[in-house]
C-alpha cells in the first residue's frame, strides 16, 4: 500500500469534528476505493468487469451494499463508481434492491 493510501486509511478511521468536509470526503473516498478493490478481489473480478456486468448483478449489489453501509459515499457516487448509471433522486433513500439502480436522467 502506498504511503499516502495508508495515511488516508488511518485518517478515515479518526475523522472528528475538527475535520472539514473536503478532508472527510477525501478519506471517505479512499476507504470506498479500498473496499471496492477488496470486493473485486473476493469476486475474482477486474475493475473493467464492472462495466460489463448488469446493474442488478448480485456481485455489484453486494459491493454497493457494503459501500453504503461502511462509508459516507452517496448512492450517486456508488452508482457512478460501479458503472450503474444514475440513481433516481426519488429512490435514493430506498433500501438496496432492484429499484435502487433504476435509470434516471443525469
Portion of residues within helices:
40-55%
End-to-end Cα distance: 35 Å
Query: What order do the helices and strands follow?
Result: HHHHH
Count of helical regions:
5
Give the overall silhouette.
globular
- Summing up helix and strand content along with how strands pair, one would put the structural category as mainly alpha
Mean pLDDT: 75
Strand content: under 5%
Low-confidence segments, ≥5 residues, pLDDT <50? 89-93
Work out the count of structural domains: 1
What value does the Rg take, in angstroms? 14 Å
Per DSSP E runs of 2 or more residues, the count of β-strands stands at 0
The biggest sheet amounts to: none
Description:
By secondary structure, this protein is mostly helical. The protein has one domain. It is about 55% helix and about 0% strand. The longest helix has 23 residues, at about 20-45. The model is unreliable at about 90-95 (pLDDT under 50).
In short:
The protein is mainly α. It has helices at residues 3-12, 21-43, 49-52, 58-70, 75-81.
What descriptive keywords fit this protein?
106 residues, mainly alpha, 5 helices, 54% helix
Secondary structure topology:
Layout: H1 3-12, H2 21-43, H3 49-52, H4 58-70, H5 75-81
Helix pairs in contact: 1-2, 2-4
Amino acid at each position: 500500500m502506498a504511503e499516502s493510501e495508508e495515511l488516508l486509511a488511518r485518517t478515515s478511521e479518526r475523522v472528528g469534528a475538527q475535520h472539514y468536509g473536503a478532508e472527510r470526503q477525501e478519506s471517505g473516498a479512499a476507504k470506498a476505493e479500498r473496499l471496492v478493490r477488496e470486493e473485486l478481489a473476493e469476486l475474482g473480478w477486474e475493475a473493467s468487469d464492472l462495466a460489463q456486468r448488469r446493474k442488478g448483478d448480485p456481485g455489484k449489489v453486494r459491493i454497493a451494499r457494503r459501500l453504503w453501509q461502511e462509508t459516507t459515499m452517496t448512492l450517486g457516487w456508488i452508482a457512478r463508481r460501479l458503472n450503474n448509471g444514475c440513481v433516481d433522486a426519488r429512490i435514493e433513500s430506498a433500501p438496496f434492491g432492484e429499484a435502487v439502480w433504476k435509470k434516471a436522467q443525469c
